[in-house]
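Board notes (copied after class):
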Amino acid sequence: MYDLETRRHALNLLADGRSISSVSRESGISRAAIRAWRTRIDPLPRMQDAPCTRPTDTAAYAYLLGLYLGDGCISPHPRGGHHLRIACADAWPGLIDLCREAIRAVRPDDSVYVLQRQGCVAVTSYGRHWTCLFPQHGPGKKHERRIALEPWQQEIVDAHPWKLVRGLIHSDGCRITNWTERNGKRYEYPRYFFTNRSDDIRRLLTDTLDRLGVAWKSCTRYGKPYNISVARKASVALMDVHVGPKY
C-alpha cells in the first residue's frame, strides 16, 4: 500500500506530462500501480477541503509573492486544485532551495518537487489554495493584465518590504558589476537591475523601494520603460544587506 502523499506526487508528475515508465523509475512505484491510479475515477480519497486561510509565515509569503510575480504561474490540475510553478535557472541552486523553503513555509501540508526543464527547473507545488493565496492569477500574461495587491497582501508587504524586494530581484533581477574608465583608469561599481514588462509589477517594486529609502531610476528599451536600476552607493549597500546576489 502507498500513502496518500506518494500517490498524489505520482499523479502530479503524470499531469505534468511525464510517462508512466519515467514516474516509475523516479519513484520506485510499480507501473501497474501508477497505471491503476491514473485510470481509476477517484484515485485519491475524498477529503473535506479546509477553508483558505492567510499564511501564518508572512515573511516567507512576501518573498514567495516576489518570486511568483517575477517568474511564477498557476495552472489548473485536471482532477481539481492547482499547480504553483516558479521557474529558477539551473545556475542558481541556492535560489532553488530558497524557493522550496518558502513554499513549504507558506503551505506546509502541500508537496513540493522540482521538474527539470532545459536550462532551468520548475519548483512545483500542488494544492487547492494557490489561487486564493495569489489572486493576481488570471488568463494571459501578467504584463497584459492589471496586477494589484489585495489589502491583506499589502499589509504583509508593509510588514516585510525587504522580503518582497528580495523575491522580485531574485526572480527578475540581478546584481552586476559595471565599469567605466576615467583618466585612463578603470573603475568598477556594483549595480542592481530589475527587468519586467509589467508596468504594475515595476511600480510595485519602485513604490516599495521609495518607502525603504532606496534610490532608483527607470531605464528604457526601444523607448519603453523596462528596467529599474539601483546604482547609488548608499542604496546598493542597503540592497546588499537585505537582498544580495542570487547564488
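Comment from the instructor: Residues 58-71 form the longest helix (14 residues). Residues 1-41 form one domain.
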